[in-house]
Design brief:
- It contains three helices and eleven strands, in the order H-H-E-E-E-E-E-E-E-H-E-E-E-E.
- It is of the alpha/beta class and 114 residues long.
- The chain starts with a helix and ends in an 8-residue tail after the last strand.
């Protein structure tokens, strides 16, 4: 381990490297495939409130500034029609061989029906 890696670990802890972040997410309960790479993991946000709702496949590359959320208030667009808005959660599934570009936000699967 060189000085740069040591300083990153001191500053960012489990988000210092892709390997450390991968191990942390696995410990949290997120289903991760093989060869998942996090570029600048200290800038990536993955919601771990309900880790069983997030699955990331094999050979996935996630770049800086990405957010993966399994909850949201996306139902607020229906507020005028239906009244009160409540938060919701849902599954996020990222398949195999995926590249996620910089500053992408991935939200849960929408399940609203008319």
């Amino acid at each position: 381990m060189n000085l740069k890696e040591l300083l990153l670990i001191i500053k960012y802890q489990y988000k210092a490297t892709s390997k450390l972040y991968y191990k942390h997410l696995k410990r949290c309960g997120i289903k991760l495939g093989v060869d998942v790479n996090f570029y600048s993991p200290w800038t990536i946000t993955i919601d771990t409130q309900r880790p069983w709702m997030i699955e990331i496949g094999n050979h996935v590359h996630i770049t800086a500034g990405t957010s993966i959320l399994q909850h949201g208030y996306d139902g607020s667009v229906l507020q005028k029609k239906y009244g009160n808005v409540y938060g919701s959660s849902g599954k996020v599934v990222i398949g195999n061989n995926v590249f996620i570009g910089t500053k992408t936000t991935i939200l849960k699967r929408c399940s609203y029906r008319r």
